[in-house]
Design goal:
The chain is built from six helices and twelve strands. The strands form three sheets. Strands 1, 4, 5, 6, 7, 8, 9 and 10 form an eight-stranded mixed sheet that branches. Strands 2-3 form a two-stranded antiparallel sheet. Helix 2 packs across helix 3. The protein is of the alpha/beta class and about 220 residues long. Strand 8, helix 4 and strand 9 form a beta-alpha-beta unit. It is globular, with a radius of gyration of 18 Å. The chain has a single domain, classed as Rossmann fold, CATH 3.40.50.
């Protein structure tokens, strides 16, 4: 599996990551969502360099221009609900893409920090032979990503999968590298953090992306 870590080269992505992590800025939900959206745009641009383009002729007011346009079908998928701002950023660049949505949540066992991942909802077009961009801002253990990927495979086999996450733990990176097909998967991340706490949250991380974007859930 190819890994593209944007943190290896400081850029505007580094600035947006710093703002996402800052506990004093996280009280501004609109800013938090906007920064996730902007990181989605940056990642979408980088992904575009690794997909197929085709040459077409475009008629201008003064003649004909030879232009390169996206030459393969793209599906942008997200894991609800935290992935929505990141998804929207990607979709604003791949604006002709089809869309897919998967719900995945942690169901904690009574009196325990242990949990199981539950998939309850899936809406997707056919994925056969298409490029799948699968977004989720936090890649903590990798379990949600694995189950979402397997759920999406019921809708067909994509040509290539680009997994986009804002922050990943090293454990999750290793897990996804073993779980998803290495020859047809690229992982895009803006930071890799070293640890997980007892609740399987990334440390130092940024907290619960879904709650910070949309408010706490009961």
């Amino acid at each position: 599996m190819k890994i593209r870590n944007l943190a290896e080269q400081p850029s505007l992505a580094s600035q947006y990551m710093a703002e996402l992590r800052d506990v004093d800025l996280q009280t501004d939900r609109m800013r938090f969502r906007h920064n996730l959206n902007r990181l989605g745009q940056i990642m979408a641009y980088e992904v575009s360099k690794e997909i197929a383009f085709s040459r077409t002729d475009v008629t201008t007011p003064l003649g004909t221009a030879h232009c390169d346009v996206v030459g393969e079908p793209v599906v942008v998928a997200t894991i609800l609900r935290a992935g929505l701002p990141l998804h929207e950023g990607v979709l604003s660049f791949f604006d002709n893409a089809e869309n897919a949505f998967v719900s995945a949540y942690r169901k904690y066992r009574p009196g325990s920090d242990e949990f199981d991942i539950h998939i309850e909802y899936l809406a997707s077009p056919s994925l056969d032979g298409k490029t799948l961009i699968l977004t989720d801002p936090m890649l903590a253990t990798g379990a949600s990503m694995e189950l979402a990927y397997k759920a999406l495979l019921t809708k067909g086999t994509p040509k290539h999968v680009h997994v986009l996450s804002v922050i990943a733990s090293q454990k999750a990176v290793d897990f996804v590298a073993k779980t998803l097909p290495s020859e047809s998967t690229t992982l895009w991340i803006a930071a890799i953090d070293p640890d997980l706490n007892a609740h399987s949250y990334i440390v130092p991380g940024l907290g619960d992306a879904g709650d910070l974007a949309f408010g706490e859930k009961l």
